[in-house]
Amino acid sequence: MKASKKIILLGHFGVGKSSLIRQFVENTFTSDYKVTIGVHILKKEIKIAADETISLIIWDLEGYDDIRKTRASYLLGTHGFIYVFDVTRPATFENLKDDITYLTDQYPNTPLKVVGNKADLVTKSYLKENKDIFSVSPNFFTSAKTGDKVDDMFIALAKELVK
Amino acid sequence: MLETYRGKYFHPRTQFITIDNLGKVLESDDVLFSLKKGDEIASVSPFFEGLAAYFDIQEDNDIKFTCVHLENTDAQEYTCDIEFKTFANGQPTLIIIHDFSDHYTYYQEVAQSRNESVINSQVLELKNKYLKEKEDFKNTFIANFSHELRNPLTGVTSFCSVLQKTDMTTEQQDYVEVIKSSADHLKNMIGDILEMSKIEVGKLSIEEELFNFHELIEMLNFTYSVKARQKNIEFDVDLDPKIPKYIESDKTRIKQVLENLIENALKFTSKGKVTLNIKENQRRARKVNLNIRISDTGIGIPADKIDTIFNSFTQLNNPQKYSGTGLGLSIVKGLVELMEGKIYVESKEKEGTTFKLNVSFKYPINQESISLEDKSDIEHKNFLSKEKYNILLAEDSELAQMAVLKILAQEGHFFLDIISNGEDVIESVIHNEYDLILMDIRMPGTHGDELTKMIRSLPVQNCKTIPILAITANLYDDDKKRYKKMGMNDIIEKPFDEKTLLKKIYKHLK
User: Fold this and answer.
1) How many CB atoms lie within 10 A of CB B292?
2) Among A54, B159, B424, B446, which is least packed by CB within 10 angstroms?
């Protein structure tokens, strides 16, 4: 049987949540920034094992500078979270630790991936040398523009959802 | 009537759907989305798939979702608020979809503009921070690098002076002259670079002293008339006689600005003339405002380059033909602005260039009663009261030690003790009676300024009054203030030459 799982992307506005989803679902990228308001929902079926397919219902939420402002109804029945920040904009990760603590307190059994996006704008050595500035060690550094680590990140979460 | 309006304007924007506990459509009024009985509600949007867990709930619930983006089979997009109602009494689940696309389209535009503005300002802030870090790094690097260059240069310039006094053939003397002039040129360039970095980090200040402005201009007239004649061009000075003779400002910096602009004009003029014109513009509240123009008939500046000439390291012309660091004009601009003045440039290619300055200077109202004591420092030599003087040199650079030793030995007035380590200085000062101390600042052990403070507090006769002169390349204003605060009497700038060193020593010896 094909499992259907709802996952939510959270984080500040302009960090590339919609771009990550578009890259994952449609393999496309545009550098034109269009603000997401409310929620867009997309779906993608992925094979996580030879005989196992999962249907990801991906909720692309409007970005907030305070995670507590997220509308509670959006979070109902969520199976997994992806918290996205922009590695080039400190304002998007200065509350990272608090936000992650809030999510893990409120949703202790819900898998969560922390993702530093726009990694194509900095060098790998910069990320390595400056990893301490992120206060929480990210699970992935992605680039929605080049697609680097985008599929890996969604698939890793999907696998965790069916465990 | 109201019911008619409601039917016409409200109902077409709101769809009612009921579903069973498996999420299959029971009834739909199809206002926005066409659905048949038995269709999966998830076929409208994966949004409903995320609510599957609530399809078979038998309790009273009213879950509201705002601003959800949906799309119908004709690819028409709606932005809706959705109510999801479940009932405890077994009634089927009701879904109400309100189309608020118009409202949310407007909201999207507002959010777009707000978010873009916030992101742009954050990015700008980061760029500024990055630029500032880059600039700070550049200035610190320049300051340190210039400092490191000054020590070896001290060796070159001072030993040239020593060498010139030995027996040499005319050919050898010519060679030494070439070395000396190259070292002087290098010294000036390092000076320019250091000065620019000081201006850029705001560590240069304008000092005020009373001086004879007319005399300064006469001196410039004399110097540059000779230089102009060597190039077969003219140099004219037109000084408004109404301008007060004595003014209060930074004589060194004014001289530097004028020299820089005149040198520049001479450099780029091969025929015709260079003119320095100074006119009084107005007087107000003990300040005289001057218009100063330096014009030449030289190669001029192309119109598209005129905006860049005050930038650091800008050289418009072939650097092989016209030497320089490309810092002269940016230093001039920096200094004029520090004096709260303005500088402009007008130029026509192949016709010439005019630099216009507008600056104000304080001046004493009663000009007649002023007499400036203008005794040159070297004249102090004639008033020495002792046959021999004991001098302590605290300096770790062997090159500088040898330079000072050679220069003082030639004079025949001095006994010189040399100490390379800061820690031994105090001991030596206690056991010897020195007439003057030459103190390097960056020394192993304790730094020279700290040592001075310690010497001043020693309970030994003359330690409070003995002249202590810093020998250093650390010459930021903050440094100078610190040396003075620590009790140092004067500063000898590295690289120094024989004349500068002796001038300062004689000045402070009694």
Assistant:
1) 23
2) B424
CB B190 within 8 A of CB B150: yes
The full length of chain B comes to 510
- Among A139, A102, A95, CA closest to A117: A139
Q: What is the 3-state secondary structure (H, E, C) of B106-150?
A: HHHHHHHHHHHHHHHHHHHHHHHHHHHHHHHHHHHHHHHHHHHHH
- pLDDT above 90 covers what percent of chain B? 43
CA gap B503, B411 in Å, rounded: 12
Which tops the pLDDT comparison, B61 or A113? A113
Distance (Å, rounded) from C-alpha B80 to C-alpha B64?
11
For residues A56-78, give the mean pLDDT. 90
Question: B68–A38: do the CB atoms touch at under 8 Å?
Answer: yes
pLDDT, tens digit, 9 for 90 and up, residues B127-184: 998 888 887 887 778 777 777 788 788 888 888 888 888 898 988 888 888 888 888 8
* CB within 8 Å: B69 and A35: no
Q: What is the DSSP letter of A63?
A: P
B216 in Cβ contact with B259 (< 8 Å): no
Domain ranges of chain B: 2-99, 124-200, 209-362, 377-508
Instruction: List pLDDT tens digits, range A29-40.
Output: 998 889 999 999
Task: Supply the CATH classification number for the domain B2-99.
Answer: 3.30.450.20
Q: Which pLDDT value is given to residue B84?
A: 94
Enumerate the residues of chain A whose CB falls inside 8 A of the CB of residue B67: 37-39, 62
As given in the structure block, the two tokens for residue B305 are 């380059």
**pLDDT tens digit sequence for B282-337:** 988 889 999 999 999 999 988 888 888 887 665 665 555 555 556 788 889 999 99
Q: Which of B115, B117, B124 to mutate to test the interface with A (most CBs of A within 10 A)?
A: B115
B85 — pLDDT class (breaks 50, 70, 90) = very high
- Domain borders along chain A are 3-161
Query: Do A35 and B112 make contact, defined as CB atoms within 8 angstroms?
Result: yes
Tell me how many helices (H) and strands (E) chain B has. 12, 17
**pLDDT for the residue A85:** 96
CA distance linking residue A112 with residue A102, whole number of Å: 12
Angle in degrees, CA B212, B354, B218, rounded to 5: 20
Looking at CATH, the fold of the domain delimited by B124-200 is given as Helix Hairpins (1.10.287)
Closest-CA residue of A relative to B106 is A37
- A3-161: CATH, from 3.90.1300.10, 3.30.450.40, 3.40.50.300, 3.40.50.1700: 3.40.50.300
| Domain B377-508, architecture per CATH | 3-Layer(aba) Sandwich (3.40)
**Chain B residues inside the 8 Å CB shell of A33:** 115-116, 119
Helix (H) or strand (E) holding B241: none
Q: Mind telling me how many Å the CA of B67 is from chain A's nearest CA?
A: 5
Considering only alpha carbons, which residue of chain A is nearest residue B70?
Answer: A40
* Contact criterion met (CB < 8 Å) for B63 and A37: no
Minimum-distance CB partner of A91 among B63, B68, B122: B122
Please answer yes or no on whether A38 and B63 come within 8 Å at the CB atom: no
Q: Which of A18, A22, A41 to mutate to test the interface with B (most CBs of B within 10 A)?
A: A41
**Rounded Cα gap, residues B176 and B169, in angstroms:** 11
